[in-house]
Specification:
Layout: E1 3-9, H1 16-19, H2 28-33, E2 38-42, E3 48-52, H3 58-66, H4 72-75, E4 83-84, E5 97-102, H5 107-114, E6 119-121, E7 129-131, E8 136-139, E9 145-149, H6 164-175, E10 206-209, E11 212-215, E12 217-222, E13 225-229, H7 237-244, H8 252-255, H9 276-287, H10 294-303, E14 317-319, E15 330-335, E16 341-342, E17 354-359, H11 363-371, E18 377-380, H12 385-391, E19 396-402, H13 421-427, H14 430-438, H15 442-449, H16 470-474, H17 481-491
Parallel strand pairs: 4-16, 5-17
Antiparallel strand pairs: 1-18, 1-19, 2-3, 6-7, 8-9, 9-13, 10-11, 12-13, 14-15, 15-17
Helix pairs in contact: 14-17
Length: 522
């Protein structure tokens, strides 16, 4: 597994900056009655005087005072439904920003920083999920029906209520293709298939029964409660959503202007009947773009909706302007004034005023800015480690960072369905793959290619992930050329190791030849 080095500014090394952290409140009713808690300070005379705890960022308080933003109590969910984040390191302070970099195609470079999912995986490594955007969720006895409760009073970043209507709209019109009466899933290549607005249907909403896949049915119970009914038990529904479609909502009041009604879908009466041409025209006018194709437009603003400043969000930070792909500029995200989480003292999150992303495509320019200390958080390539670490040792901290991907560094992944049948037979033999693994000198690779900053390991879940297994991580990683040759002797033609000769694939006169690309080891 590759170890990536992250360059972090010492004074902001906690990314509690993004959503912050805290311990749960113990008395929600008291919070509701006293929305501005107080602490006491000792005066010089020994008497205690109350001192207000600031519950919102100064920049938002200024807007409230100016009358351009509602008071905090009107921006948060009702007291019992506010999400209180657990403390991680300490409580934070309001203000400041963090600068990072991305390229002009880096939509995913900042998306995860601000993302808020319906269900999220716990940080304890258990692999279990918990409520996040929703307040609670629970199944019926056989897990064929799931009930999900939202947070009452929660709002989008434009102040519009976030309700079940946004969920229903997203499911019926955004994330699924047109559904038939039986709700049988139709293959992409089959007749009658109608593509989803975001172009990608999500399998987390399907279940197989008697060999047939069926789409779930969403039903509104009230403004803040809905059910998801499957044709068969779906016990892993929350986990499946957390992986496949964690953002299972979009603001209906905004997107009704850009989504055409699908043929054959029984819609609610509040959904306007517009054509695809009208939807494209509306989007081009409001977004200032020139989309010609409905599918491309839908994927752009439906899937990558967080890019655009005019799209209401429930994320912690929202875009200022749509320059996310303009090289040389800085793409900025500012705190969401309606963000629905607080810390343990009842202070609205996030703490930071903004996140800034320099749009840079040239790797050398990034190194120059890293060396100059202009970037707060950044990935350091192995080849630049010594230069950057030396230049920023007084201002920044180098933090070893393990990525969770199974193959995030140099790895050899054989195509076991390769068209060459001789190679296919060889690649599918576990002994061959084991021989390859133990014939690699990982320590030498680490020393020469990664400046000694990596950690030799197997392509397996990284330490810290829920699936980490020490045995898997170290299996077949120790160099053993004799053992490798012994295994190959069993599955290839006999080889006399004569200079200039190579092993032949079993039953053939063909050399064992594998072409490996090492153009990018970062």
């Amino acid at each position: 597994m590759k170890r990536v080095l992250a360059l972090m500014l010492s004074v902001v090394l906690t990314i509690s900056l993004l959503t912050a952290c805290s311990k749960p409140s113990t008395n929600k009713d008291e919070e509701k009655q006293n929305p501005t808690p107080a602490v006491t300070e000792e005066t010089p005379g020994g008497e205690s005087t109350p001192a207000e705890v600031v519950l919102e960022a100064p920049m938002l308080a200024e807007q409230v005072a100016a009358g351009t933003l509602p008071v905090l109590a009107e921006r948060l969910p009702v007291a019992d439904d506010v999400m209180v984040e657990k403390d991680v390191l300490s409580l934070g302070e309001y203000g400041g920003s963090v600068t990072a970099t991305t390229n002009d195609g880096g939509r995913w470079g900042w998306g995860p920083y601000t993302e808020q999912s319906m269900f999220r995986f716990k940080l304890d490594g258990s692999g279990e999920v918990e409520a996040n955007v929703c307040k609670d969720y629970y199944p019926n006895e056989d897990a064929s029906v799931w009930t999900i409760e939202l947070r009452e009073g929660m709002k989008w970043s434009d102040g519009h209520p976030f309700t079940v209507d946004d969920i229903m709209f997203y499911y019926d019109h955004i994330s699924t293709p047109a559904l038939n009466a039986e709700r049988v899933a139709i293959g992409v290549e089959e007749a009658g298939y109608y593509p989803a607005y975001t172009s990608k249907p999500y399998n987390c909403y399907q279940v197989m029964k008697d060999g047939v896949n069926y789409w779930a049915e969403f039903a509104k119970v009230d403004e803040y409660t809905f059910t998801v009914t499957f044709a068969a038990p779906k016990p892993n529904f929350p986990e499946a959503v957390a992986v496949d479609n964690k953002w299972m909502f979009l603001p209906k009041h905004f997107f009704v202007n850009y989504v055409a009604r699908k043929d054959g879908v029984a819609d609610d009466a509040t959904f306007p009947l517009i054509t695809q041409e009208q939807a494209i025209a509306n989007a081009n006018k409001d977004f200032g773009k020139v989309w010609e194709d409905y599918g491309s437009m839908g994927k752009d603003i439906g899937y990558y909706n967080w890019d655009y400043a005019i799209v209401p969000q429930i994320r912690s930070f929202i875009a200022v302007k749509d320059n996310w792909n303009t090289v040389g500029e800085t793409y900025e995200l500012v705190r969401n004034p309606y963000f629905w989480k607080t810390d343990s003292e009842g202070r609205q999150l996030p703490y930071l005023d903004s996140l800034k992303f320099m749009i840079i495509n040239d790797a050398d320019q990034i190194v120059l800015k890293q060396t100059a200390g202009e970037i707060d958080i950044s990935t350091v390539e192995f080849t630049d480690y010594a230069t950057i670490a030396t230049a920023t040792q007084a201002s920044h901290t180098i933090v070893p960072w393990f990525r969770p991907e199974w193959q995030s560094g140099p790895a050899l992944a054989l195509c076991q369905t390769v068209q060459d049948l001789d190679k296919r037979a060889l690649f599918q033999d576990a002994r061959f793959r084991e021989a390859l693994s133990i014939s690699v000198d990982r320590n030498l690779m680490n020393a020469t290619l990664m400046s000694g900053q990596s950690k030799p390991a197997q392509a397996a879940p990284a330490e810290g992930s829920s699936s980490y297994n020490e045995e898997w991580s170290n299996k077949w990683t120790e160099l053993n050329v004799d053992k490798a040759n012994s295994l190959l002797d069993e599955i290839t033609e006999p080889w006399d190791k004569a200079e200039g000769t190579y092993r032949k694939m079993k039953g053939t006169d063909r050399d064992v030849e594998i072409v490996i690309s090492t153009s990018d080891i970062s």
